[in-house]
User: What shape does this take?
Amino acid sequence: MRTSATERPGFVWVAPALLFFGLFGLAPVVVVGYLSFTSWSGLGSPQWVGLANWSALPGDGQVRGGLVITLTLTALCWATQTPLALAFGVWSAGHQRVRAVVSAVFFLPLLLSTAAIALVWKALLDPNFGVPAQVREWFGLSHSNVLGHPTLALYAIVFIVLWQFLPFHMLLYQAAARQVPRSLYEAAELDGASGFQRFLRITVPQLRHTIIASSVLMLVGSMTYFETVLLLTAGGPGNATRILPLHMYNQGFVAFEMGYASAIAVLLVVLGTGLSLLVVRVTGYSRMTSQREGM
Amino acid sequence: MSRTHRIRVIGSSSLALSLLLATGCGTSGPGGGDTLQVWALEDALVNEIVERGIEAHNEAQDVPAELVTFVNDAYKQRLQVALGSPNAPDVFFNWGGGNLAQYTQQDQVLDLTQTLEDNPEFRDSFLPSVLDVAEIDGSYYGVPLLGVQPVVMYYNKPVLAEAGLEPPETFEDLYEAIDVLQEEGVTPIVLPGAQGWTQLMWFSYMVDRVGGPDVFQAIVDGEEGAWEAPAVLEALELCQDLVDRGAFGNNFTSVDYDNGSASALLANGDSAMFLMGSWEISRQLEDSPQFVENDELGFTSFPVLEGGAGEPNAIVGNPSNYFSVNSDSQHTEAAIDFLVETLASDEYVSDLIDVGQVPPIEGIEDQLQESDHAEFATFTHGLVSDAPTFTQSWDQALDPAAAEAMLTNLQLIFLGDLTPEEFAQAMEQTR
Assistant: This one.
């Protein structure tokens, strides 16, 4: 029997998924786009104000500051998570029993909710009753202020995000590493390649698509670290950790400037989409060519 | 102490989390229609009292009332979205001032002026300074439903005594105490600086002591240059000066009020003083009952500034919380009846006193003296009755956008990242 493109499943089959995406994905974006041209406190009906919200954006120091902090956080998270997830993922791909047990334990943070993680770490990092107070006693440090310190607070968030999401990316690398054909390693071994050389010349190139996929997830995901930051520092001290999504939340649900918050939201949508398009373009992920000989 | 506290902090965080989840899923919207919906914040003790008022009302009235409660953080958002929708409450809890003004500007609140005039006895039972917080543009839109909550200075009696100090009455006393306590290895003052509103208490008292209540009134009225008034700048300098003197220690920016660590620092003697709302007494009773029962918790009014233009016994805080009536309500008559019959009734007032509240009601001194925590209750009542002005917490009095900007900028002042002039300029732009 001949199969052709015309015999692929019809439109009816995708209708439920399209409807769902349209209703909960596209429609809100369109509404937010409309709201960004209005002034609305949530009470009464939105008042059309034209481009007022948009023209206020460039002059808002917290938008510029928030953008810088968001990008810094994204870069730091990517730079810490990728190498560690790659290393641990490849390590845990081995079939030894110890590795299986250790990685099972390591996957635990994946089961916890982000809010629970943030609250527990907040308690652990309490300056007087938490870990920093102990560490300060042991090492005679000048202060035990972590979440209230402008730079340390950001590093603490990077670390907690790392702790939470590393297992997920490890899982991606573990699965991908197990797919690498054994024959490649055997051939390299015959040629006298060392373990490190095999990792660098076979494993890493073979995992190229996984690295890109995991990076895209991290970059786009970094726009959603919002709740971690809200619960840990609420953007403080001062503005030190006020990422753009948090600024949006504060404008919308604390200051009740829904219109202005919508403008920031649109900016975030554009930013996230642009970032993932850029990664896909630059890395050639969109061509999706197989790297494997004869596969 | 510190270890058990640490465990408790984690425990209470997880509890808070599960509560968050439970309420997130649990509270369904009111059905509207045939019942009078009363919305309030979750507070087990107070809710029970309101519930009793509702029962009395339901026996006498055709339209039965129903209490719906929310957790603090979600409440404002929920109300904002519900008002003007078919799921709106008939009677709703609010903070008066700017918080209430948002709703009156959208014509969402029933004018109660006539009701108060028709019931002079009801009107006159409230302390005028507290009732006035619900007055917007000459009309009354709310009635006080809870006790007064002035901000007062708490102190740890044994810690001050060991250092040979008296509770500070003037700024000079305060400065001396800060120096002496630091030599003793005690953090002079707890400041949960992870949250801007705790710093606001210092700032707003400073402004009042330096320049009197008119300075803030000008800010609320939106007068040009009000944020740049000399009294505002001087108050900000006084705040930064306290930080530089080491009054708050070196890690105050990560101390949190909500998780109880600030209150624990006062109770365990790591800190000597704590400027906080009158609700702190319930916090201490719950977290460190021994501390209160051993009579180690002291309280006094905010120190007096020599040469300041403000009255020495003026106070700052939350005058009360208020019940207002939704103007779209189909049961406005029943709602008004409920407010007038309940909020100043003898049962309601004495129930409030029993749970440690100090209702803003005239002539209840005797009742307070017989209550469980008579010393604190009479102190608070005296403070409010003697105060020439009771300035509402600025973050409730201002509109939400300005309040949000102010709290962030205030954190920057306490961090030393902004100068008073930069603060004033930034706030002028929000006007």
Observations:
- The first strand of chain A starts at residue 38 and ends at 39.
